[in-house]
Amino acid sequence: MPDTPDLLFDPHFLETPDALFQQLMANVEWDTRMRARRTASYGVAYNYSQIDYPATPLPDVLQPLCEQLHQRLGFRPNNCLLNLYDDGQSSMGFHSDDCTGLAPETGVAILSLGSTRPIHFRNKADRSHEVTWELVPGSLLYMDQAVQAHWLHAIPRVEAAGPRISLTFRQILG
């Protein structure tokens, strides 16, 4: 059993995360159907947590991020699901992302904006084994399909945390 998930973590992926955070906070129309956080989806149609998001053009501000991710990860995302955690009470429990609709040899890339939040990983084979990364503003965390197969991940509550936006990029098969 590996001690940590075999993932890519770059705490300095974005140069100006605060400007992007402010722009998204001011311009995104957030979906409120999910109780724990607000969401928005851009790109190809996507079904997330029994919520259908129709195809919606990717805003110009997200286009360069897709190119950066393509250069870094080797695939071009065609969907960006945004999660807005309003404060430290907004959270996400342990889960693995569904990879059945993803292009082969791809995974989920997470860009973090706003407040720093921890992400916990729990090994599926030994649920007592957990590791944590701090998702600082501008950081990239990439989980391939093998990580999803062997690890659960969660964003826990953090009492004093401010707002955070998680941009999750995928290449979804059409």
From TrEMBL:
User: Which UniProt keywords are present, listed alphabetically?
Assistant: Methyltransferase, Transferase
Enumerate the PROSITE patterns for this protein: FE2OG_OXY
- Cite the Fe2OG dioxygenase domain residue spans from the record: 76-173
Q: Name one GO molecular function term.
A: methyltransferase activity
Taxonomy of the source species? Bacteria, Pseudomonadati, Pseudomonadota, Gammaproteobacteria, Pseudomonadales
What biological processes does GO assign it? methylation
In which organism is this protein found? Pseudomonas solani
Domain of life, per lineage: Bacteria
Q: What is this protein called?
A: DNA methylase
